[in-house]
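In response to the reviewer comment on reproducibility (Comment 2.3), we provide here a single inverse folding case reported in full, input and output, so that an independent group could reproduce the run without further information from us. The structure tokens appear first.
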């Protein structure tokens, strides 16, 4: 398990939770903030270099990712977990994709099938590339008769490349969010 960027401890409140919640609410802070303040007050002054170091460690380890907790029925939680597994995505990425309107997720399509289609088309394009390389080798050696076997392939090469690019474009568009996933902050003009 990776070490956390924050110091954590779990405490059994033994019936004090309601009082803690009420006190935090009356002070306008979270229960965690109240507990931190009370513990810091009780422990007295600490070495400032320790708090500075932990703040700089947190800033260095921050990668703009946050933990989020959702409350829902067990069947819904299982359904989301299963859908994320089928999509081959971590749960957070799956939910973010739904919020972002990623078409392959919102239409219930199989993300893996889309990727497999793109991989297959790319493999065909790679095969085409190898055939063209072989053809140029034959032509440079003067093997015109052997090179003529590639005539049919040459007639369709432009369309094959266009088909691949259209397919790749469609697949990539279906794997990309349609909506902005980060909120836009609007500042009123004075």
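Designed residues, in position order:
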């Amino acid at each position: 398990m990776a070490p956390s960027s924050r110091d954590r401890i779990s405490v059994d409140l033994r019936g004090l939770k309601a009082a803690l919640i009420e006190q935090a609410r009356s002070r306008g802070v979270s229960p965690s903030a109240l507990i931190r303040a009370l513990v810091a007050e009780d422990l007295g002054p600490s070495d400032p270099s320790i708090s500075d170091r932990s703040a700089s460690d947190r800033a260095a380890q921050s990668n703009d990712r946050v933990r989020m907790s959702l409350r829902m029925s067990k069947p819904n939680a299982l359904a989301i977990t299963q859908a994320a597994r089928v999509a081959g995505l971590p749960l957070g990425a799956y939910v973010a994709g739904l919020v972002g309107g990623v078409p392959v997720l919102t239409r219930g399509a199989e993300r893996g099938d889309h990727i497999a289609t793109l991989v297959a088309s790319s493999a065909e394009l790679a095969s085409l590339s190898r055939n063209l390389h072989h053809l140029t080798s034959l032509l440079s050696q003067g093997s015109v008769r052997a090179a003529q076997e590639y005539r049919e392939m040459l007639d369709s090469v432009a369309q094959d490349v266009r088909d691949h690019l259209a397919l790749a474009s469609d697949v990539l568009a279906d794997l990309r969010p349609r909506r902005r996933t980060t909120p836009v902050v609007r500042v009123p003009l004075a």
